[in-house]
Each structure stands twice: as C-alpha cells, then as structure tokens.
UniProtKB/TrEMBL annotation:
Statement: the UniProt record of this protein carries the keyword Repeat: yes
Source organism (scientific name): Zapornia atra
Keywords: Leucine-rich repeat, Repeat
Designated name of the protein: LRC43 protein
Coiled-coil ranges per UniProt: none
PROSITE patterns membership: LRR (PS51450)
GO cellular component: cytoplasm
InterPro entries for this protein: Leu-rich_rpt (IPR001611), LRR_dom_sf (IPR032675)
UniProt keyword NAD present: no
Gene: Lrrc43
Length: 321
C-alpha cells in the first residue's frame, strides 16, 4: 500500500535520528521548545555541554555532501527541507505532525499496488507522484482533496471508474501515460464533469483508437492547454494532429510540440470534416541489414551434371502493433 511505502520513505529520511530530531544531542537547548532558530545561538559554542551540538553544527553535518548523515542521492527538494526542519524545529515534524507538512509525495518504483485511506492523513498534499508502480485501480475517496497534480505514469490502469467516483475537484494535471486504457468509455470520464480545472492531461502510450469520441469528451475541458496522445493507435491516422489542433482551439501544446499560429491556420476547418478521419493507417517498415541468413533471391548456380538436391529458403517477418 502507499501507506507502507510512505512509512518506509520516512524511515529512509531518518527524521528522528542524528543530526535530526529531539535526541540527546540537543537536550539542553531550549530553542526547540520555543521555536527559536539556529541564528539565536551564534557564538555560544563554548558553552555547549559534552555530547551535544549547536544548531549550526548540526546543519553543517546535514548539508555536507561528504557527511555520513548527508541526504541520500535522488531525494527531492522537499526531502531536504524536511531534514532541515527536523534539525531546526523538530517538534513540527515529530510524530503525526509530519503529515501536515507534506505538500508533495514522490513514491517511484516501489511496487505500490493500492492507494489506501492512510493517504488521507496528508491533508495538505498537493502533488502525488506514483510513477512506475503497480496501481491498477484507484479509490478516489482516498485521495486528499487539495491535490493539484496526480502522476500515474507506467502503472496498470485499465479503466477510470474508480478514479472518477470522487475525483479531487481542483486537479490541474493528470498523468496516465503508459497504462492499459483502451478508449473513452460511455460514461465520459474525460470530461469537465469530473475534471473542471484540468490544465494538463497525459494519455500517451495507451490503446486509444476512437479519435472522434475522445475529442468530443476533451472539448468540454475548457482549461486544457497541454495534451499528450502520442503512442496511441489513433496517432497513426494521417489527419490526427490537424484534427486535434482545429478541434481544441485552446490547446497550447500537443505531444510535446507547441502549436504555432501558422499551424492552427493551416488546419483551420478540418474539425468540420470528420469524414477525413479514415479508420486505417499505413506503416512503412524498412529493414537496414540482415546478417547470417542466406539470401533467397539469389539463384544458386549448380555445376553441370550435379545430382545434388536443390535447397530453397524462404522467410517471413511478423510485426506486432
């Protein structure tokens, strides 16, 4: 569950271990109780009892990249901020107080399968990154209501029913790339009824095939400015980009390419010609070189009078789309 992944993440940060936390190394320093900062104790190093450290010394230990207590590589800026808070104001990140501090949570490639109700402890959470996990279904009631960014790229999502039951009302980015979505459903889960404030939507590398139905839903997203659809079968349609550019006039970026005014003028009127959207596409595959395979097109020249059997070769190549 995501709760288990969060506990492991906090353990990894070591917010209660030296040089962070309320350990014996800061016992006699009253700044923790009264909310003072490190600057309040400058110049008092000579009075530090044996076994204790000043806030300045603890921060230096924390920030020095050669320190054994330095933050591990790959941690986010928020992780660094939490570590520093655990030195200067440890009571703020002690116990259940820590859950009020989180604004962003990044759990990547940790095998998370379920977003359980424990996530609701992070009531101030605005960004949730769950890239490269094993999530196949979401109970949206377990998502904090202040969420602005939800990234679910590279998971196993096959439908949006659970996510759309009680979606976060102010969500601005929804990342669903590299999942198993097959197309817009009859319930129209990709409309403003569920995502009234959506600015950015990533549906790339799924299995969407019905461009007309998808556009009819996306056109209701009045705040949508960034759309990713590359990697879907519908992107093979010859008029794919032009139809989208003309159908969604408020779009700024499509498939990581900025929509210029000239391009929009070029495709003007294409949205009123859906008959041009043929449900077929031609794919040309070129093979550069094959090694170690006899060429079947070359006729073997047999010696005169040879009774040796003639051996022929033929091959086929299969492409899976």
């Amino acid at each position: 569950t995501i709760s288990a992944a969060l506990r492991e993440h906090l353990r990894h940060l070591g917010l209660q271990d030296f040089p962070c936390g309320l350990g014996s190394w800061v016992v006699s320093w009253g700044f923790h109780s009264h909310g003072g900062g490190a600057g309040d104790y400058a110049g008092q190093e000579e009075t530090v009892p044996l076994g204790e450290e000043t806030p300045e010394a603890l921060m230096e230990i924390l920030r020095d990249q050669h320190s054994p207590w330095a933050l591990p590589p790959g941690c986010s800026p928020q992780d660094q901020q939490l570590r520093e808070m655990a030195v200067l104001t440890p009571k703020i990140v002690h116990g259940s107080n820590i859950f009020w501090v989180f604004r962003s949570l990044r759990i990547v490639d940790k095998g998370v399968e379920e977003i359980d109700e424990g996530l609701l402890q992070l009531q101030q959470l605005e960004e949730l990154i769950l890239t490269a996990n094993r999530v196949n279904r979401i109970t949206s009631a377990n998502l904090p209501r202040m969420l602005r960014v939800l990234e679910l790229c590279c998971n196993a999502m096959a439908d949006l029913q659970g996510l759309c039951a009680q979606p976060p009302p102010d969500l601005q980015h929804l990342g669903l790339g590299y999942n198993r979505l097959r197309g817009p459903s009859r319930d129209k889960y990709l409309t403003a009824d569920f995502w009234p404030n959506l600015v950015s939507l990533d549906l790339s590398f799924n299995s969407f095939t019905d461009l007309l139905e998808l556009v009819s839903q996306l056109s209701s997203l009045q705040k949508l400015r960034i759309l990713m659809l590359q990697g879907n079968p519908l992107a093979l349609i010859p008029t794919y980009r032009g139809f989208l550019v003309d159908s969604l006039p408020k779009l700024f970026v499509l498939d990581d390419i900025h929509i210029e005014p000239d391009e929009r003028h070029q495709f003007q009127g294409l949205a009123r010609q859906p008959e041009l959207l043929k449900s077929e596409a031609r794919v040309v595959v070129g093979i550069g070189e094959l090694k170690g395979v006899p060429d079947p097109s070359v006729q073997q020249q047999l010696e005169g009078g040879s009774q040796a059997p003639v051996i022929t070769y033929s091959y086929y190549v299969t492409y899976e789309f």
